[in-house]
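Input (structure):
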């Protein structure tokens, strides 16, 4: 169906692509989605939070093969400071200014507003000032109640 829709919009059969990478900066999460086999708590032995150097290494690997876009994806870590994210965004912008600027999914941005107790528009403004490029859709929508509160199992 997607291919038929593409053919209607672009009958010349030209297809383009980019090389991108999802970087999972942490697997610590306090949402506990029933479908997720990825999340860990801080008590789990295999939990992690990547350092800025580790993330830059992953970006360099992407750049080395011609990649141009990154998505910072990870758990809803309840204890990472806002400075962790700001430092990460600012550090990424310095050595990798040519590609699309880093992105967080909308679900993460809502998490930031909750954890940092800031209005959503302020979170977006401050993260954009720090280097956030865009906020694509997607994420753990099914883990939110109608009021926007996270569900726990």
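Output (sequence):
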């Amino acid at each position: 169906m997607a291919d038929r829709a593409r053919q209607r919009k672009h009958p010349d059969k030209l297809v383009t692509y980019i090389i991108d990478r999802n970087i999972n900066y942490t697997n610590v999460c306090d949402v506990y989605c029933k479908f997720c086999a990825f999340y860990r708590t801080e008590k789990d032995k295999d939990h992690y939070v990547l350092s800025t150097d580790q993330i830059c290494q992953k970006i360099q690997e992407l750049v080395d093969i011609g990649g141009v876009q990154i998505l910072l994806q990870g758990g809803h870590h309840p204890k990472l400071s806002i400075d962790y994210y700001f430092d990460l965004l600012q550090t990424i912008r310095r050595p990798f200014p040519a590609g699309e600027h880093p992105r967080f999914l909308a679900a993460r941005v809502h998490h930031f507003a909750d954890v940092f107790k800031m209005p959503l528009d302020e979170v977006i403004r401050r993260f954009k000032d720090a280097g956030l490029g865009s906020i694509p859709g997607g994420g753990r929508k099914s883990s939110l109640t109608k009021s926007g509160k996270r569900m726990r199992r």
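Notes: The longest strand covers residues 20-24. Confidence is low (pLDDT under 50) at residues 140-153.
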